[in-house]
Amino acid sequence: MNIALLGKERIGDDLLALRRIIHHHAPQCGLDTGNAAAVRQFIDGTYPPRAALNPDYLRTCREMRAMLILLLRLEASTSEDIGFEALSRLWQDHNEILARYRIPDIHHEGMAPGAMLAIPAQA
User: Fold this and answer.
1) So what's the pLDDT on residue 42?
2) Cβ pair 97, 13 in contact under 8 A
3) I want to staple 118 with a disulfide (CB 3.0 to 4.6 A). Which of 21, 36, 96, 98 is the partner?
């Protein structure tokens, strides 16, 4: 299915909502969403040691991992399906809506766009 058929407003709302959920619940898993290396490790299944001792905490971490993977896949799919110009308009609309309603942009709250996709410098 071509995700562009869903409409850019809907895609933007859904991605923003998912980002907000992730940003809100990440601390419950000890995850700093602003730390690209930590996010990559988390996606790879490296959870805090507490997860091995607590099944509920492990379940929470697995759910967070699933949301992170979903976000990455949706962002990649959306970018490919709607193209660069439409994606640029989507982000412009996103920022205008946030400004209009004075909603803090979560990108400025520790979850920068692409932070989870950044490639670390090789030592």
Assistant:
1) 93
2) no
3) 36
- Residue 10's alpha-carbon distances to 81, 87, 108, 114, in angstroms, are 14, 13, 22, 20
What is the residue whose two structure tokens read 């896949």?
A: 73
- For tokens 């809907």, name the residue: 10
What distance in Å separates the CA atoms of residue 15 and residue 53, rounded to the nearest whole number?
A: 33
Element holding 91 (H helix, E strand):
helix 55-100
Q: Tens digits of per-residue pLDDT, 79-109? A: 677 777 877 787 788 778 777 777 665 554 4
The long-range contacts involving 4-10, CB below 8 angstroms and separated by at least 24 positions, are 4/81, 4/82, 4/86, 8/82, 8/86, 8/89, 8/90, 8/93, 9/93
What gap in Å lies between CA 15 and CA 121, rounded to an integer? 28
- Residues constituting the chain: 123
